[in-house]
UniProtKB/TrEMBL annotation:
<dbReference type="Pfam" id="PF00583">
    <property type="entry name" value="Acetyltransf_1"/>
</dbReference>
<dbReference type="InterPro" id="IPR000182">
    <property type="entry name" value="GNAT_dom"/>
</dbReference>
<feature type="domain" description="N-acetyltransferase">
    <location>
        <begin position="3"/>
        <end position="171"/>
    </location>
</feature>
<keyword id="KW-0012">Acyltransferase</keyword>
<dbReference type="GO" id="GO:0016747">
    <property type="term" value="F:acyltransferase activity, transferring groups other than amino-acyl groups"/>
</dbReference>
<dbReference type="InterPro" id="IPR016181">
    <property type="entry name" value="Acyl_CoA_acyltransferase"/>
</dbReference>
<dbReference type="InterPro" id="IPR050680">
    <property type="entry name" value="YpeA/RimI_acetyltransf"/>
</dbReference>
<keyword id="KW-0808">Transferase</keyword>
<protein>
    <submittedName>
        <fullName>GNAT family N-acetyltransferase</fullName>
    </submittedName>
</protein>
Amino acid sequence: MSLTFRECTKLDLDELVNISRDTFIAAFEEDNDPADFKNYIDFAFNKEKLQSELENKNSRFYFVLEEEELVGYFKLNENEAQTEVKSKDSFELERIYVVRAHQGKKIGAWILQQVLKLTKQNGKDYLWLGVWEKNAAAIRFYQRHGFKKFGTHPYYIGKDKQTDWLLRLEL
């Protein structure tokens, strides 16, 4: 398996919309109210919103490729683009998704290693993220990689108030 990653540009917008929607739906659709979920998808992953995020100088999206095939993506935020901490000493890993057909190949672990390298190269002291408290597999994954819980915050899927664990890894 030969993986690479590259930063997304405005030319990648349509593909970014598609992979964002597809991977989020695959991960969470069955655990949420259908109407709330559809409204959330239409809001969070519409072309205008993702274009705005892509143009934010403090947010970066990256595509992960196996050979030439898009198999995942991730998003890093710094400074005021971070959703919670907003520290100059950290990156927030806001999104990390692997296309369902490619799960189980340890691509997520490879992505996390690349994220940690980027975090260190950018002189950050720690990496943090939010993960849904009911996503036990993801929580175990991050804890295996040394992340520790430091708080919680609400996350809304439509009107449904959910809770994310905030996890942090000191570098």
